[in-house]
Amino acid sequence: MALNDAMKTKKELKEEYKQMKFPMGVFQVRNLTNDKVLIDNSTDMLSKWNRHKMELNFGGHRNMELQKDWTEKGEDNFVFEVLSELKSKDDEQDVNYAKELRVLQKMVIEEMNIPPERMY
């Protein structure tokens, strides 16, 4: 940490954090042993991936089938893969990114044409 970072107030650091741009888009959690996927989206993909991992590691993920495979196969048999990234529109203030991401996720799923039995 740089010296001037240590001298910033909590308020300044919070404001900087709010201004940061996180990668947003559609991603998948893929089981390497059976090629099944969970496709999800987020305005902060890395945080969402970390949340999925935390829930899976603690045994409390809402997708029971994914949880079962994660518990049986282990974290090393799963990968996080970005399928499509959405760039923020700096010139537009009232963009509903959550809505855009849901539409993008639906398009990605249709384009990938994944059979239902391969999806969590």
TrEMBL record:
InterPro entries: GIY-YIG_endonuc_sf. Gene3D superfamilies: GIY-YIG endonuclease. SUPFAM superfamilies: GIY-YIG endonuclease (SSF82771). CDD domains: GIY-YIG_LuxR_like (cd10451). This is GIY-YIG domain-containing protein. It comes from Prolixibacter bellariivorans.
